[in-house]
Amino acid sequence: MLSQITYILLDAARMGNGIEEAKELNPTHDSLYRGRSEESLAVVAPYIFLFQYKTDFINWYMAKGWGDSWGVMIKSAYPMDELHKHFRRFLIVGTEDHQQLYFRFYDPRVLRIFLPSCDMGQLREFFGPIEYFIMEDEDKNFAIKCWLQNGILHSQKIRLPDFVSGNVKPHEPAQSSPYELQKPGMPSTPSGPSTPSAPATPSAPSVPSEPAVPRPKPKWNMFDSEPSAPSAPSTPSAPSVPSAPSAPSAPSAPSAPSMPSAPSAPSAPSAPSMPSEPTIPGPKPKWNMFD
User: Fold this and answer.
1) How far is residue 264's CA from residue 220's CA, in Å, rounded to a whole number?
2) Rounded to 5 degrees, what are φ and ψ at 205?
3) Backbone φ, ψ for residue 193 (5° rounding)
4) Cβ contact 125:94 at 8 Å
């Protein structure tokens, strides 16, 4: 299986001066950092190397780096520049408090924990052009192979001699381990017990009846006043105000001949068209910008 590996990600932060020796043994490499980071963080940067079987580079890595968390091996049919672009997308992650942190996914100790924590969408995005990852186990006498199949993460624990000799069938059924995940929403075990209780769920339909219960309109709805306005016409009973014209009883004063002309004031009753405004009880809502 070692002969099938195509690339390897190495962590300069773990290797110390070993990264310079790696560059000398294998000139086909590239830093995942760019710009100022590439210049100032070269001694701790992650590098992608072309992996060729039975070379001094591979023999050196297996003798010195295996078991010391130097990096992660990759099988992919894509060219290095495509892999380079893909991995650069995951170098920095944001936290809930808006901090940016470097994500050291190329450290096998990190990758062993990260992959099982991903959901289906995250796994597909992270694997992208990768056929599978190979990393050392906590016990350096074993290698762990992780691949994605039908959206499910599979893993296989391989004895190191078999891994080196290639005496392993590709994608053998994964052993039961914390690395195998189920598709979200398909936990067959929990669904079983839930089915008996399912009959009780029919009662749930009663919940829809709740929406039928009228509820006050939310205060943030600026259009609530509009529909309420139509109800205002019902209040026209307010026109009882025109009864105010009864005030003409004051005409007792008409003793003053000049006052008769005042009766023309009754034309004011035409104002009753205005009462429509008083029909709105109380002050208008301040949030109604259409008033």
Assistant:
1) 48
2) -50, -25
3) -60, -30
4) no
**Tokens standing for 32?**
């995942």
Residue recorded with tokens 């014209």: 245
The three-state (H, E, C) secondary structure of 131-183, written as one string: CEEEEECCCCCEEEEEEEECCEEEEEEEEHHHHHHCCCCCCCCCCCCCCCCCC
Could you give the CA distance from residue 56 to residue 26 in angstroms, rounded to a whole number?
A: 9
CA distance to 40, 66, 173, per residue, from 56 (Å)? 29, 15, 33
Say if residue 109's pLDDT is above 90: yes
Look up tokens 């195509």; give the residue: 6
Could you report the per-residue pLDDT of 216-248, keeping only the tens digit for each? 333 323 333 333 333 444 444 444 444 444 444
pTM for the model stands at: 0.59
Residues whose CB is less than 8 angstroms from the CB of residue 120 and which lie 6 or more positions away in sequence, other chains included: 151, 152, 183, 184
Q: Rounded to an integer, what is the distance from CA 244 to the centroid of its chain? A: 66
- CB-based contacts of 15-23 (< 8 A; 24+ apart in sequence): 15/65, 15/70, 18/64, 18/65, 18/70, 19/43, 19/47, 21/60, 22/47, 22/49, 22/57, 22/60, 22/61, 23/47
Q: What is the mean pLDDT of residues 185-208?
A: 42
pLDDT for the residue 37: 81
Strand partners of residue 31: 47
Mean pLDDT of the region 84-104: 90
The pLDDT of residue 233: 41
- The answer to whether the CB of 53 falls within 8 A of the CB of 12 is no
Question: Per DSSP, what are the bridge partners of residue 146?
Answer: 133, 155
Length of the chain: 291
**Token pair for residue 129?**
């052009």
Q: Which pLDDT score, from 0 to 100, does residue 169 have?
A: 64
Which tokens go with 149? Answer: 């199949």
